Amino acid sequence: MLIQQIRTVDPSYRLDSLGFPATLEGQTNLIRQLRLDRAVAFYHVKGEARPLQGETLRLMQERADSAYAEGQALFDAGRLQPRLSREEAIGNYVDRAVRRELHDLYNIRGIDYSKGQQIRVIGREYDTSGSDFTYRIPDARVGNIAFDVTLSRKTLATPQVRGFFNSDFKPDAVLIVRPAQLGSNNTYAISRPGK
Q1: 3-state SS record for 107-154
Q2: Tens of pLDDT, residues 117-139
Q3: pTM (2 decimals)?
Q4: CB 97 within 8 A of CB 55
């Protein structure tokens, strides 16, 4: 069904495969790949970013979870050096891992995430409404959604979140992505005030 949905959008789509995977892990990976291929097809062919927002969130969550476990192990082994705290060192590790994963994803799929594009990875989002230009740097931007990977809880009152909403690109929502190990409600959306 996923292959048919992709071909409906992009008739030239071809799945390079050696056949249907025999293992559950292989089947899961194939479905993940097909969902991503479908989102990329919608973005490239129709200019629709919404499916890619969902797949970007999924990838960011998976990588944040695995990077958090890796970061804890590295810190405990003395291989991550804190400037301020253990959480800061692990948080920086998680940020870098998620950003690398996004760069790889977009590069492999031929998605331009340079300045001025709908898709961005750690790009400056300026607020030119005042006399002094300011900016905030979300971890990612896909269409009208900003993504922030963090270990700490953030709210609309958080200056960084307010800065995202005040930026010239005016996101409809900011998705806060926290490792699942931090407890329930680890990942959530903050809607633009008035929406």
Answers
A1: HHCCCCCCCCCCEEECCCEEECCCCCCEEECCCEEECCEEEEECCCCC
A2: 999 999 899 999 988 889 999 99
A3: 0.91
A4: no
